[in-house]
Design a protein that fits this description.
With 449 residues, the chain is mainly beta. Helices cover 4% and strands 41% of the residues.
Length: 449
């Protein structure tokens, strides 16, 4: 039985995002947040000599790049609008394949720095940190975020619609950190294949940076931000220029896998062998520099990060975000609310694909996923097929093979507004098994919490 839905929504127009204001403690310097971004421009320098990623910035070419500096306190800092208490300098280099970022964070007392974790995607706001967000499409809406702490841990995310974030996105990049007597240095390398940008010969990206000094409870930004906004507000970012003749090259990645096993059972002196094996692959290909095609066959999610423990003390169901790599890139395209996630209309949630109503895995035969931007439009198309599951026992209940189709298109309007439509369909061969019934039985509700 087939069930489909089609929704259209026009979001309310948002007012301009910045205006002149003083710090919250009444003693801050006035900052015109709407115009401050235009004075924040830094150029990346092309290089031909190789860069050794060691966190030292001892190559001569680093000194040829003009540093970005002049950070301003914001966020929860004691003195929003005032200059940062400690100096920070960031330089940019690039070659045919990579963008290199060198950050020097001056700190008179290295022993007082706070590091709260070494794992990937460490918890922010609890330690010292330096980070950057790149609006590579220069659309004042989306960006790629990369940060590290004095121990060299990595944290990244993808943002969309100037405020939505996908913290489970993991890009291909690296960083090295060294500590000195009065500074710590972070050296980033970000392959152009990790980013998505227009095919123009000359690139101009939106860009902002931040630094956190936890002992002072201070957060500062290169392009000033009002207290109510965070780094994902790329509509108030500065500019990174000087990128000439860069491209993603042949953006093709193939990830095959194979598993095999044997079960031996001895019965009445006889040894019986039961062989089992499986295999599949994932493919990621950049159709254009802004549109990505993902394909999968017999998908394996064994490397997916486990869900974070949650304690539910309410009458509402818990919301667990999508963490499977196949569904992560450009996931903001499929969001249907003003901010996505909790508290917003959620007509499509990818975690319903490949999981039963009770949360047990359902094998996926294969599927394709097209996502990205084309001019002023954001496009998302998903088609997936799951296998049928036999009942565990005679009294158990099996699952039919399902076909899922999702189509999404958004047209950006003005500064922070858009109009869009979404189409969802699930086709099942079982009579009476349709979308509303499955949604009601699913542990995660149709409407986010």
């Amino acid at each position: 039985m087939r069930s489909a839905t089609f929704l259209i929504i026009l979001l309310a127009l948002h007012s301009p995002s910045g205006f002149a204001q003083s710090a919250g403690n009444g003693n801050g310097a006035p900052v015109d947040y709407e115009t401050a971004r235009f004075s924040k421009v830094v150029l990346a320098v092309p290089i031909e000599v190789p860069i050794t990623l060691d966190g030292r910035l001892d190559e001569r070419v680093w000194m040829e790049a003009e540093p970005a500096s002049g950070f301003t306190q914001g966020g929860r800092s004691p003195n929003p609008g005032y200059p940062a208490s400690q100096r920070t300098e960031v330089r940019f280099l690039y070659d045919d394949d990579n963008l290199y970022i060198g950050a020097i964070c001056y700190e008179p007392d290295i022993a007082t720095m706070i590091v709260n974790g070494l794992k990937r995607d460490f918890t922010s706001n609890l330690g010292d940190e330096i980070g950057i967000i790149l609006d590579t499409l220069n659309d004042d809406r989306s960006g790629f975020f990369f940060s590290t702490n004095p121990a060299g841990a990595r944290r990244d995310l993808q943002s969309s619609n100037d405020r939505q974030i996908n913290q489970n996105w993991d890009g291909v990049w690296d960083v090295r950190v060294t500590l000195g007597e009065d500074r710590w240095i972070a050296e980033f390398v970000i392959p152009f294949k990790t980013l998505r940008f227009s095919p123009d010969a000359s690139q101009e990206w939106g860009m902002n940076m931040f630094r956190k000094i936890r002992r002072l409870n201070e957060e500062s930004h290169w392009a000033p931000l009002p207290v109510r906004y965070n780094m994902t507000r790329v509509s108030l970012a500065g500019t990174l220029g000087g990128l000439e003749g860069i491209s993603q090259g042949r953006n093709l990645k193939v990830k095959p896998y194979a598993v095999a096993g044997i079960v031996q059972q001895r019965n009445e002196g006889k040894l019986a062998n039961d062989f089992n094996y499986d295999g599949g692959f994932d493919v990621k290909y950049g159709l254009t520099q802004t549109l990505t095609l993902d394909a999968t066959y017999r998908t394996d999610f064994s490397q997916t990060e486990v869900d974070q423990d949650q304690v539910n003390l309410t009458r509402f169901s818990l919301f667990f975000p999508e963490k499977r790599e196949f569904f992560l890139e450009n996931s903001g395209v499929f969001n249907f609310g003003s901010t996505g996630g909790r508290g917003n209309l959620l007509p499509f949630f990818s975690r319903r694909i490949g999981l039963s109503d009770r949360g047990t895995p359902v094998p996926i035969v294969g599927g394709t996923r097209l996502s990205g931007t084309a001019g002023s439009y954001e496009i998302g198309l998903l088609a997936m097929k799951t296998e049928s599951v036999d009942p565990v026992d005679e009294g158990g209940e099996g699952l039919p093979s399902d076909d899922f189709i999702v189509g999404r298109i958004k047209r950006n309007l003005l500064q922070n507004s858009f109009i869009g439509a979404i189409f969802t369909s699930r086709d099942s061969s079982v009579e009476g098994d349709h979308n509303p019934e499955r949604v009601n039985k699913c542990e995660t509700p149709a409407f986010g919490i």
